[in-house]
Write a structure and sequence with these properties.
Low-confidence stretches: none
Number of strands: 0
Number of helices: 5
Largest sheet: none
Helix content: over 70%
Order of helices and strands: HHHHH
Distance between the termini: 25 Å
Radius of gyration: 19 Å
Mean pLDDT: 86
């Protein structure tokens, strides 16, 4: 996660992360964290979607043992989302901060959108 950011910050010629203020570096860190979270929630949603399709197709012959697995997945997904929600609050607070540049705010709003997609 951070090795790629370190390479970008120390690269010659300087890249975006080094040419901007520290608020842009903050955006880079948050964006990379959120990108790491997305595949986790997508995997859970994909598995639950698969179960939903099976349930629709099989109707009465849906394997009851799967219900326990579905319940476990839903609980785990809610725990993951519960861990992510405080990050949403932090990002929203940073966006409202007057010390954050307009450019960084725009990028941070994109991070906020991705977080909202994850937690829906």
């Amino acid at each position: 996660l951070f090795s790629g950011l370190y390479k970008e910050v120390t690269a010659n010629p300087p890249r975006r992360a080094r040419e901007h203020r520290a608020d842009f570096l903050l955006y880079e860190v948050l964006d990379r964290v959120v990108k790491q979270l997305q595949p986790i929630t997508m995997a859970y949603n994909a598995r639950l979607g698969w179960f939903h399709k099976k349930m629709q197709a099989l109707k009465d012959s849906f394997d009851r043992a799967w219900l326990s697995e579905i319940s476990d997945y839903r609980l785990e997904l809610e725990e993951v989302k519960g861990s992510i929600r405080p990050l949403c609050t932090v990002v929203a607070s940073i966006i409202r901060d007057d010390e954050i540049s307009k450019e960084a705010t725009t990028f941070l709003e994109d991070v906020e959108d991705h977080l909202n997609q994850i937690t829906l």
